[in-house]
């Protein structure tokens, strides 16, 4: 299990127990880190954890500027989309605790809006997701990348879109992952994941974000049984299921 899943579970824990406060979320990350529950955590998130432990206020912890333009905020934002009382400031603060960067925020917001579009019955997998989320995003390089992909050949493949960039830079990662999620009905979940992995780049986070969006669209019943079996065989499965079950109880 990678930090993408672990930080998403930490976010679920916070949202399932109380109204969102940024400091509670970074404190939960610290608890995970000290309990050896974060595998391969990124530099920005790690710096935020260490800064907060050293007494720095959460709003000033972590990296800033170009060094904070990673996908670490976007990869764990999905749970917010399932709660009705979430504001853009909540998304901004949830990202800012580790990534103080406008592009990082735009990436997190894009993932949030993608999942929200499914839950609000605006995107059904056949209409254009990009047309829904682009107008809602701030003027950023990430928004420009989404526009570029949207204007590209409509029958393009994951490997073709990967040529625009698919590393951990949020402008490369999030638009690529969102595009991959739109191929879910063409490819199915397993093939979508395989093509993401084959394309290289930040494979675990790209697959995680695409899986969060595509999984919301198809629902648990459409996830291949082989993947469910692999999940249940994980050593931490009971812990994962407990967090998810507790979170579901708080969702409106």
From TrEMBL:
The keyword Hydrolase applies. GO terms for molecular function: hydrolase activity; metal ion binding. The keyword Repressor does not apply. Binds 2 magnesium ions per subunit. Keywords: Hydrolase, Magnesium, Metal-binding. SUPFAM superfamilies: ADP-ribosylglycohydrolase. Mg(2+) binds at residues 2-4, 202, 204-205. Gene3D superfamilies: ADP-ribosylation/Crystallin J1 (1.10.4080.10). InterPro entries: ADP-ribosylglycohydrolase, Ribosyl_crysJ1, Ribosyl_crysJ1_sf. It comes from the Bacteria. Its cofactor is Mg(2+). Belongs to the ADP-ribosylglycohydrolase family. PANTHER family: ADP-RIBOSYLGLYCOHYDROLASE, ADP-RIBOSYLHYDROLASE ARH3. This is ADP-ribosylglycohydrolase family protein. It comes from Chryseobacterium elymi.
């Amino acid at each position: 299990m990678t930090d993408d899943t672990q930080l998403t579970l930490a976010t679920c824990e916070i949202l399932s127990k109380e109204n969102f406060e940024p400091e509670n979320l970074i404190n939960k990350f610290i608890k995970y880190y000290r309990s050896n529950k974060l595998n391969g955590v990124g530099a920005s998130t790690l710096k935020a954890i260490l800064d907060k432990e050293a007494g720095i206020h959460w709003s000033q912890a972590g990296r800033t500027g170009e060094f904070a333009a990673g996908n670490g905020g976007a990869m764990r934002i999905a749970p917010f989309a399932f709660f009705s009382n979430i504001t853009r400031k909540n998304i901004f603060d949830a990202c800012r605790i580790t990534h103080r960067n406008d592009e990082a925020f735009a990436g997190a917001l894009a993932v949030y809006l993608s999942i929200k579009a499914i839950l609000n019955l605006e995107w059904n997998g056949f209409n254009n997701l990009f047309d829904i989320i682009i107008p809602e995003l701030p003027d950023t390089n990430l928004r420009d990348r989404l526009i570029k992909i949207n204007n590209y050949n409509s029958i393009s493949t994951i490997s073709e879109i990967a040529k625009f960039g698919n590393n951990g830079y949020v402008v490369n990662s999030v638009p690529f992952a969102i595009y991959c999620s739109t191929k879910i009905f063409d490819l199915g979940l397993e093939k979508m994941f395989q093509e993401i992995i084959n394309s290289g780049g930040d494979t675990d986070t790209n697959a995680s974000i695409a899986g969060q969006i595509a999984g919301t669209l198809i629902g648990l019943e459409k996830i291949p049984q082989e993947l469910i079996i692999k999940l249940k065989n994980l050593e931490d499965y009971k812990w994962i299921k407990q967090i998810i079950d507790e979170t579901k109880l708080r969702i409106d």
